[in-house]
């Protein structure tokens, strides 16, 4: 049976999430299997291939720890994209930057070898540009106390493909998605101390779509009997995380250089949902290479939702090079299992 014929007869739709998430308070797996064709009578109803699919795809590859790491990467990236800095802005400031985050936690090496899903990445990452705006509250409230406060907001809707996200190279897989992150940070500067205290609210929204088709038939087993299948995989990942952060920073300024180390913590609440779909033609029981004698198709759909509450601490180090109204800023943030870096151009007026 020709590959082109198989691809046109298979109608596959699906969904998985990939970049992140937090501690799961609850885990629920929903699975549906539809089988059409003569060979379906040779598949025990209680088996239905779920043992070949559900475990490796959602347990061995995307463990709770890996999903948590992916989610925390996205949150740290969103925090770093705010670009609030550690110096009091006396009036207004605009900033445009790019932020990335990468975690150390990796998916297990037990990959789902029966389809192109084996090519999914091992590391969780998050990346996006961002636009920020900072205002000194004295511009809104004419009091001396208001001049000690800055408020910084950031937002950048970002649609991406594999070509414009770093670290992610998935062979034979179409990657696309969107990020809509935003946040607001209030920062207080005690008079002539060098310290500043910030607290903020952030919303991290991510959607990721992965789609692939098997380039070759692959083997699986049903009750010990060898079979082959050939199909399409669609994956959809969605995360919605609300965060509250608090940090303390100290600023040194030497000429055009400002150095700002800091410590912070963040509390997160939200969910991550995953949907995975696979449609495939299956071989006959008597001949693993025979797909045409008794044409049969099986469709599998799995869905999970992780409801989570988590928190983590991080350290930061910012460097600012300023001359006149313009400045270039870079800030690195690091938690126990993740790091984030931001580079931005700022204009103060």
Describe the fold and architecture.
The chain is mainly β and 349 residues long. The protein has one domain (3-348). Helices cover 10% and strands 56% of the residues. It contains 3 helices and 13 strands. The chain has helices at residues 3-9, 50-61, 64-80, and strands spanning 24-36, 92-106, 123-136, 149-161, 173-188, 195-213, 218-222, 225-250, 252-254, 257-282, 297-323, 326-334, 338-348. It has a 10-stranded antiparallel beta barrel with strand order 2-3-4-5-6-8-10-11-12-13. Strand 7 and strand 8 (225-250) form a beta hairpin. It is elongated, with a radius of gyration of 25 Å. The termini are far apart. Residues 1-27 and 108-114 have low confidence and may be disordered. This is Porin. It comes from Leptospira limi. InterPro entries: Lsa36-like.
Produce a short descriptive summary.
The chain has 349 residues and is mainly β. The chain contains 3 helices and 13 strands; from the N terminus they run αβααββββββββββββ. The protein has one domain.
């Amino acid at each position: 049976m020709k590959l082109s014929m198989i691809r046109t007869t298979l109608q596959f739709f699906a969904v998985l999430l990939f970049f992140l998430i937090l501690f799961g308070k609850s885990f629920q797996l929903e699975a549906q299997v539809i089988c059409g064709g003569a060979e379906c009578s040779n598949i025990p109803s209680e088996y239905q291939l779920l043992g070949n699919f559900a475990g490796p795809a959602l347990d061995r590859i995307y463990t709770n720890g890996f999903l948590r790491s992916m989610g925390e990467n996205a949150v740290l990236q969103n925090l770093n994209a705010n670009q609030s800095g550690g110096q009091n802005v006396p009036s207004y400031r605009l900033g445009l930057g790019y932020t990335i985050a990468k975690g150390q936690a990796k998916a297990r090496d037990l990959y789902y070898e029966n389809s192109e899903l084996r090519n999914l990445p091992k590391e969780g990452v998050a990346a996006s540009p961002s636009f920020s705006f900072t205002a000194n509250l004295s511009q809104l409230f004419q009091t001396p106390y208001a001049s000690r406060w800055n408020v910084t907001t950031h937002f950048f809707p970002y649609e991406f493909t594999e070509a414009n996200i770093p670290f992610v190279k998935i062979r034979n897989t179409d990657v696309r998605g969107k990020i809509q992150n935003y946040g607001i940070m209030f920062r207080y500067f005690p008079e002539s101390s060098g310290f500043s205290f910030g607290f903020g609210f952030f919303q991290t929204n991510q959607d990721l779509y992965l789609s692939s088709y098997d380039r070759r038939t692959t083997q699986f087993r049903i009750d010990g009997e060898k079979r082959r299948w050939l199909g399409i995989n669609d994956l959809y990942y969605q995360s919605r995380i609300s965060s509250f952060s608090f940090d303390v920073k100290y600023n040194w300024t030497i000429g055009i250089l400002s150095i700002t180390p800091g410590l912070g913590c963040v509390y997160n609440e939200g969910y991550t949902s995953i949907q995975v779909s696979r449609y495939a033609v299956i071989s006959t029981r008597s001949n693993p290479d025979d797909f045409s004698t008794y044409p049969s198709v099986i469709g599998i759909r799995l869905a999970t939702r992780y409801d989570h509450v988590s928190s983590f601490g991080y350290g930061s180090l910012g460097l600012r090079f300023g001359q006149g109204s313009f400045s270039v800023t870079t800030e690195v943030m690091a938690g126990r299992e993740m790091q984030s870096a931001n580079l931005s151009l700022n204009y103060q007026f």
